[in-house]
Amino acid sequence: MSRLVPFDNISGSHNKALECRPDDYRSWYLRGNSLRMLGRYTEAIASYDKAIERFSDDYRAWYQRGNALDNLGRFCEAIASYNKALQLRPNDYWAWYQKGQAYRSLGQYREAIASYDAAIKSCANDFWAWYRRGDALRELGDDQEAIASYDRAIQSRPTDYWSWYWRGYSLQRLGKYRAALGSYNTAIRYKPDDYWAWYRRGDAMRYLGWDRDAIASYDKALDIDPKAASAWYGKACCYARLGRVNRGMESLEEAIALAPNRYQELAKTNPDFERLRQDERFQEFYNY
């Protein structure tokens, strides 16, 4: 049982009620909500426990107790609380959704998907369960099904940047680079100042062999985050394939300076750098 704090350490009319009636369920529940809003999650759980001692069959205290446990990263305990809430209200969308979130935080993606599916049965058109279902499927490597979930999320929120971005990412992993570009372009329309869609757009163009266009996209990404080693590396690949050795070496040097452990080894064997390997700077760098 979590430790309770004195009444006078928290503002709220429920404290006065508890001073007069310490067995009042509603006041303990509201006190828990106030503590949770303040970020005092352990103390909130103690209040929810007190509420549950007085009225164990109320959905709300079990559900909010699960949320406070989730806030603390105590995901298995949170799931147990959500299960209690669902025994009392089996079709509750948010308890199923939050249970899915807890499973996803544990890396238990199949269990998360089952919970999101149950949430969707309760509220078929809500954005969040479809979107997070897509995330869990993508994390399992099931990109085709992830795309279908992101499509349903986009039906609810057509302008959501991250749904379009992750849809593009899943398409790209399937080798569908032109389709991925369409999703990245839409994402950029809704959030033009985010690094990731510009960077992934550059990657998709590079995989298609559109090196000049890819460089322009990487440049946009680097305008937003000049220290993004991955974008510098992508530019180096493109410049090398175009035979622009000086620009290729400059970009590669930037990438290695920012992330030496990753890109120094990759550059040794990357076939894109065949022309760079004839350059004295490349040979000196690797002691050829």
Describe the structure.
- The structure is a single chain.
- This protein has two domains: 1-124, Serine Threonine Protein Phosphatase 5, Tetratricopeptide repeat; 193-287, Serine Threonine Protein Phosphatase 5, Tetratricopeptide repeat (Alpha Horseshoe).
- Helices cover 74% and strands 0% of the residues.
- The protein has 17 helices and no strands.
- The chain has helices at residues 13-20, 25-37, 41-54, 59-71, 75-88, 93-105, 109-122, 127-139, 143-156, 161-173, 177-190, 195-207, 211-224, 229-241, 245-258, 260-269, 280-285.
- Helix 5 (75-88) runs antiparallel to helix 6 (93-105).
- The longest helix is centred in the N-terminal third of the chain and has 14 residues, at 41-54.
- It starts with 12 loop residues before the first helix and ends with a helix.
- Mean pLDDT is 92; it is low at 1-5.
